[in-house]
Amino acid sequence: MAYSFTGFIGTLEPVQHICRQYIFARGIPLGQEIFLVPLTEELQEQMNDMPGSAALMDGFEFLTQPIESVLVSASAAGPVAYAEVSFWAGEGNEAGIIWQDGSRVRTIRFGRGVINAILKYLGCTATEGLDEFDTMGFGMRRFTDDWLKE
Questions:
Q1: Is it the case that residue 90 has pLDDT exceeding 90?
Q2: Residue 68 belongs to what domain range?
Q3: Does 143 reside within a domain?
């Protein structure tokens, strides 16, 4: 089975910062004062249409310098993270970066549990018997665009 997610996860203020700048950005409340912005193809194109290099950041499939610049700026308002997860038949990759106060706090590459680590950093408390990933509903949606179908 396939699973693919790319997007931003943060507290309200940095997510609002992103959504005010881009018409294709949609903030989705996950609960526990944590929000998500799916990085759709349209949003990615819009964010990369700004001055600067759109070359990919080392070790990432979709993260570019223009996108990181937006997240650095947004992190002045609160913690925000970028995550990309891609799996097919149990094989795949997860990577992410957390920013706060305009700086990288943590980079997680080529591991498992990236979204769990991000959610923990943002203050998520897992429901008994579940991890943070499932507590926040990531297991209920298989692809990034699925977050926009409700």
A1: no
A2: 3-138
A3: no
